[in-house]
Write a structure and sequence with these properties.
Blueprint (H helix, E strand, L loop, with lengths): L2 H10 L6 H15 E6 L2 E8 L2 H15 L4 E6 L7 E7 L2 H11 L20 H15 E3 L8 E5 L2 H12 L6 E5 L2 E6 L2 H11 L2 H51 L7 H12 L5 H7 L6 H19 L3
Antiparallel strand pairs: 1-2, 2-4, 3-4, 5-6, 6-8, 7-8
Helix pairs in contact: 2-3, 2-5, 7-8, 8-9, 8-11, 9-11, 10-11
């Protein structure tokens, strides 16, 4: 099961105790997946989804909120992205009117219908439920082992704007991007995705994601340290090679005895300990010299070798 499916399974089991929150969540679901049709002269309210857990939640939400029992029909899918389509429906006009009145959706529902009424999502708890319903209907998350990406695909720019604004009421930085005929509300920053899971009350998924983030951060930190140490080692080795080449060139051309005593001493120590760091070289001198002092002497030797080569 994908991480996105795990999140949806957890959210599908999350049932608000307050009726107004259940209505806000159901309003989001109906706004994305609902439709009102006329069949054989009868009005039918349908909620269509490819997600079995969402279908069960819709059935439970309607039952708990309105004491209405709906029908669930399983239809064959296209066999490519999904095998089944679940349709939750009722054709009783009084029940339909009761649901639509509570959802304040009298002018049209579904993908091309009206926005969710602002009165339903005034409270913070109702905003959480609204986001949860929208994610269950049209959301997805990437595998946090690979990347951090949270998105909800909206059928219109107006619905995307409403959803983005509700999400950003929780101090997020959600953005909208057009994708084909849809508009996608998305969040890409790892810490914010953790926070949106908290807003939707997917606490188990939140802990799982945090564990992944901690491991990734530790792995990245170790990699950075290794890379830094490797770079320092390479830098030290390359510098030592250049220093030895300069000293050997001076020895061949004019001899080390031509150097001042302090430079001759460090030159001999460097030849004796080719792999030693500057601090170690200084410790071999009598009296000992600090790292900066050793570096200063070796730079002078480099200048002398450069002049002998005609480089300076």
């Amino acid at each position: 099961m994908s991480f996105s499916s795990e999140v949806k399974d957890e959210l599908a089991k999350q049932m608000s105790k307050s009726r107004h929150c259940r209505i806000a969540e159901l309003a989001a679901i109906v706004s994305f997946d609902g439709r009102l049709e006329q069949k054989n002269g009868k009005k039918i309210l349908e909620i269509t989804t490819e997600n079995a857990t969402l279908a069960r939640k819709c059935f439970t939400l309607i039952k708990k909120t309105f004491n209405i029992g709906t029908d669930i029909e399983v239809r064959n899918g296209n066999g490519v992205s999904h095998n089944h389509i679940y349709v939750i429906s009722t054709d009783r006009e009084d029940e339909i009117e009761k649901i639509l009145a509570a959802l304040k959706m009298t002018d049209g529902i579904g993908k091309n219908g009206e926005l969710v009424n602002r009165l339903l999502i005034q409270n913070v708890c109702c905003k959480r439920a609204f986001i949860r319903g929208a994610f269950l209907s049209a959301g997805s998350m990437s595998d946090p082992e690979k990347s951090y990406h949270f998105e909800i695909v909206c059928p219109s720019e107006e619905k995307a704007t409403q959803l983005r604004d509700v999400i950003n009421d929780f101090d997020f930085d959600a953005k909208i991007v057009a994708r084909k005929k849809n508009y996608v509300v998305y969040i890409k920053e790892g810490a914010q995705i953790v926070d949106i899971l908290n807003v939707m009350e997917a606490h188990v998924a939140l802990m799982n994601l945090e564990n992944v983030r901690i491991i990734k951060e530790m792995r990245n930190s170790v990699n950075r340290q290794v890379n830094c140490e490797t770079a320092n080692i390479n830098k030290t080795v390359n510098a030592a090679v250049r220093q030895i080449e300069d000293i050997q060139y001076i020895e061949e051309r004019v001899g080390l005895d031509s150097l001042p005593e302090n430079l001759r001493e460090i030159a001999e120590i460097r030849l004796k300990y080719p792999d030693a760091a500057l601090k170690e070289l200084g410790a071999y001198l009598q009296p000992p010299v600090g790292k900066s002092g050793v570096n200063h002497r070796l730079r002078k030797i480099a200048d002398i070798a450069g002049k002998l080569r005609g480089e300076i």
